[in-house]
Amino acid sequence: MSSMVEQLHTSRQSTDIIAHHFCFSDNDDSLKARNVVGSLARQILEEWLQNAEADELRALHRKTSDVDSAEITDIISNLLLPNVSYYILLDGIDKCPPNEAQEVVACLLKLCQRHRNLKLS
Length: 121
What we know:
By secondary structure, the protein is α/β, with parallel strands linked by helices. Helices cover 55% and strands 12% of the residues.
């Protein structure tokens, strides 16, 4: 999986955004839907976060201080740009408890339905 991430980074266009998450059976936090979706969101929004104004960052902090994975998905969806390709690599989702895995899949499906330039692997 890490070689796949590396390959995407070396062959990507300057506007491509790559996010990845590894679920480890010996790390309970990596198996929680909220953390998986939050990790992907942080990577997807990295450039936006770097260029955001202080007021935008404060507003985002207020919105995200106590949200679940579905709400994170809605926030991400509203900030994705139509002219950017997004690549999400997710490994080990089968290690997650079924309810957590289903929640992650539902969130990713929602993002894919809203944004044609989002690809999953």
